[in-house]
């Protein structure tokens, strides 16, 4: 079989190695530049590759194409492949064919990385042979090719779910759905919702579906989409909706309850390592997944209480001159920033900006008015932010680099204030990634500290 891989990143190279391991004729093509470490890896495996363009004759001779999630379906090369009737699948779909491991699959507009890493942490510390894959960890295909795990915990974006057809999750988690990546989905929210709900494909009565009970988008979609899986909703307080009782909630004694058919777990909410309402939901989803997998109660409690959190998600970046700096660079959409602001005190200086994805900032406006003393815009073009927030906050500033933004914050913040980088936007106007943005933010805060400004 001729297998073509589009994209020379982590998922593409992993898929190429798995394809070679299975005896396929593999060719990898990347329109951009393949990072050096992946070029070396491909050469060591004896896999043909190209970069800086596509050899369409080779690509259109494929029996099947594995497409990296970052390549949109509107890309000319993808349109040409589909026009010829060649199947296009994701790396996760491809890898799933060659493993019988149990799959815990987690999606959502916000919180999926934290929940994925927390779930993995609980399972690994309990002694399971568990792999971490998807948007975090290493390529699932590479792990399937080179290792054996009994369980995989997989973070799935809507982009990955687009090209998954026969893949079967044993535990499917949808944390929430709020507008995000609408530029990818023709600015139609329903298209984005449909992509997220592909995580339910192929669930059987032996499988589990975990979801936030109070998410209006999820509730509406469940009126249209049926699933045979057992349903495990979670909510801040015990409730019954659509005939289903909450399986995880906090009671009047501030105790977290996690109930599955054969067991009941309780622990003080105060013992959770992750703070904030959004992290309560993340902890509930992880605890339900672990309980369904028969992890011992004490192991679940321990994992929920000693998890150290996620870089770039409400990460303390230091205190300088009495001002606390928080790195929430992973907040690339409006709802994620809402959750961040919900956990902030008054007198917060908020850094916003980047590549706008069709954002509606009205969602965060009440919290901005309540908690934010100044907005610092940081991006190549801050026009939309300036138009929306001017007159809504006491101060607004227009900056065009991370250094300028941080120094502006340092100038206007007083002892006791909080500076929050929670941009609402993608990072690609000024940075390589949200990780790059967050690390540069922390570097600038560290400079402030060393200069004692």
TrEMBL record:
<dbReference type="InterPro" id="IPR036615">
    <property type="entry name" value="Mur_ligase_C_dom_sf"/>
</dbReference>
<keyword id="KW-0132">Cell division</keyword>
<dbReference type="InterPro" id="IPR036565">
    <property type="entry name" value="Mur-like_cat_sf"/>
</dbReference>
<keyword id="KW-0547">Nucleotide-binding</keyword>
<dbReference type="GO" id="GO:0008764">
    <property type="term" value="F:UDP-N-acetylmuramoylalanine-D-glutamate ligase activity"/>
</dbReference>
<dbReference type="InterPro" id="IPR004101">
    <property type="entry name" value="Mur_ligase_C"/>
</dbReference>
<dbReference type="GO" id="GO:0071555">
    <property type="term" value="P:cell wall organization"/>
</dbReference>
<dbReference type="Pfam" id="PF21799">
    <property type="entry name" value="MurD-like_N"/>
</dbReference>
<feature type="domain" description="Mur ligase central">
    <location>
        <begin position="106"/>
        <end position="289"/>
    </location>
</feature>
<dbReference type="GO" id="GO:0051301">
    <property type="term" value="P:cell division"/>
</dbReference>
<dbReference type="InterPro" id="IPR005762">
    <property type="entry name" value="MurD"/>
</dbReference>
<keyword id="KW-0573">Peptidoglycan synthesis</keyword>
<dbReference type="GO" id="GO:0008360">
    <property type="term" value="P:regulation of cell shape"/>
</dbReference>
<comment type="similarity">
    <text>Belongs to the MurCDEF family.</text>
</comment>
<dbReference type="GO" id="GO:0005737">
    <property type="term" value="C:cytoplasm"/>
</dbReference>
<comment type="pathway">
    <text>Cell wall biogenesis; peptidoglycan biosynthesis.</text>
</comment>
<dbReference type="InterPro" id="IPR013221">
    <property type="entry name" value="Mur_ligase_cen"/>
</dbReference>
<keyword id="KW-0436">Ligase</keyword>
<keyword id="KW-0961">Cell wall biogenesis/degradation</keyword>
<feature type="binding site">
    <location>
        <begin position="108"/>
        <end position="114"/>
    </location>
    <ligand>
        <name>ATP</name>
    </ligand>
</feature>
<keyword id="KW-0131">Cell cycle</keyword>
<dbReference type="GO" id="GO:0009252">
    <property type="term" value="P:peptidoglycan biosynthetic process"/>
</dbReference>
<feature type="domain" description="Mur ligase C-terminal">
    <location>
        <begin position="312"/>
        <end position="424"/>
    </location>
</feature>
<keyword id="KW-0133">Cell shape</keyword>
<keyword id="KW-0963">Cytoplasm</keyword>
<keyword id="KW-0067">ATP-binding</keyword>
<comment type="function">
    <text>Cell wall formation. Catalyzes the addition of glutamate to the nucleotide precursor UDP-N-acetylmuramoyl-L-alanine (UMA).</text>
</comment>
<dbReference type="Pfam" id="PF02875">
    <property type="entry name" value="Mur_ligase_C"/>
</dbReference>
<protein>
    <recommendedName>
        <fullName>UDP-N-acetylmuramoylalanine--D-glutamate ligase</fullName>
        <ecNumber>6.3.2.9</ecNumber>
    </recommendedName>
</protein>
<dbReference type="Pfam" id="PF08245">
    <property type="entry name" value="Mur_ligase_M"/>
</dbReference>
<dbReference type="GO" id="GO:0005524">
    <property type="term" value="F:ATP binding"/>
</dbReference>
């Amino acid at each position: 079989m001729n297998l073509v891989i589009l994209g020379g990143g982590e998922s593409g190279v992993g898929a190429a190695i798995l394809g070679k391991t299975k005896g396929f004729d593999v060719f990898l093509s990347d329109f951009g530049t393949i990072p050096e470490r992946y070029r070396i890896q491909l050469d060591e495996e004896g896999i043909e590759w190209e970069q800086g363009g596509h050899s369409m004759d080779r690509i259109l001779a494929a029996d099947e194409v594995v497409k990296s999630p970052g390549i949109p379906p509107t890309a000319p090369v993808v349109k040409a492949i589909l026009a010829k009737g060649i199947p296009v699948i994701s790396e996760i779909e491809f890898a799933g064919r060659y493993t019988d491991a149990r799959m815990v699959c987690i999606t959502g507009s916000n919180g999926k990385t934290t929940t994925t890493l927390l779930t993995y942490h609980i399972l690994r510390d309990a002694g399971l042979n568990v792999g971490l894959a998807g948007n975090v960890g290493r390529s699932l295909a590479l792990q399937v090719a080179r290792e054996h795990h009994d369980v995989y915990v997989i973070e799935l974006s809507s982009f990955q779910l687009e090209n998954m057809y026969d893949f079967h999750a044993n535990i499917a988690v949808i944390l929430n759905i709020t507008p995000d990546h609408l530029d990818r989905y023709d600015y139609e929210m329903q298209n984005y919702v449909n992509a997220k709900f592909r995580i339910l494909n192929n669930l059987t009565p032996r499988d589990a579906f975990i979801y936030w009970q109070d998410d209006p988008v999820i509730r509406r979609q469940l009126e249209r989409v049926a699933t045979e899986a057992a349903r495990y909703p979670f909510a801040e307080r015990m409730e019954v909706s659509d005939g289903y009782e909450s399986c995880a909630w906090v009671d009047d004694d501030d105790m977290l309850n996690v109930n599955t058919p054969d067991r009941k777990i309780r622990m003080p909410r105060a013992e959770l390592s992750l703070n904030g309402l959004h992290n309560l939901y993340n902890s509930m989803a992880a605890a339900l997944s672990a309980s369904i997998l028969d992890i011992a109660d004490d192991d679940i409690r321990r994992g929920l209480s000693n998890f150290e959190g996620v870089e770039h998600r409400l990460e303390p970046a230091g205190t300088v001159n009495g001002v606390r700096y928080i790195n929430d660079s992973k907040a690339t959409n409006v709802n994620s920033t809402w959750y961040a602001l919900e956990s902030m005190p008054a007198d917060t200086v908020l850094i916003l900006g980047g590549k706008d994805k069709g954002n509606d900032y009205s969602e965060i406006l009440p919290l901005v008015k309540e908690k934010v003393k100044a907005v610092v815009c940081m991006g190549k073009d801050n026009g939309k932010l300036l138009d929306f927030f001017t007159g809504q906050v006491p101060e607004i500033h227009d900056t065009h680099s991370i250094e300028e933004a941080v120094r502006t914050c340092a100038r206007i913040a007083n002892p006791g204030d909080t500076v929050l980088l929670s941009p609402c936007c993608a990072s690609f106007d000024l940075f390589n990634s949200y990780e790059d943005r967050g690390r540069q933010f922390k570097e600038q805060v560290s400079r402030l500290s060393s200069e004692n400004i």
